[in-house]
């Protein structure tokens, strides 16, 4: 049996707005858009991607799944994401080497320390 990882699904109150936010944050391309779905990928034929799917209920708790990103420069990337609308959040992580942030709908993600050489 062979499996190909295609997408990470993100439930969203506004799939187009949130998907566009992530497309710009990651510099990814839009591969599908409708009233209820918005899909992005690193390149048109490269997977996995992110697919934002309409869910008409608010986020209620800490996300059980989140994305981790490894930047070249953590401070610069955190500042860029904050300027783009992300917020730093405290989910009880304490003093760590990574920064926990949330997108405009409150989905947490982490910006890890500098990429290893």
From TrEMBL:
Residues 2-114 form the VOC domain. It holds the Pfam family Glyoxalase_6. InterPro entries: Glyas_Bleomycin-R_OHBP_Dase, Glyoxalase_6, VOC_core. This is VOC domain-containing protein. It comes from Streptomyces violaceusniger (strain Tu 4113). The lineage of its organism: Bacteria, Bacillati, Actinomycetota, Actinomycetes, Kitasatosporales.
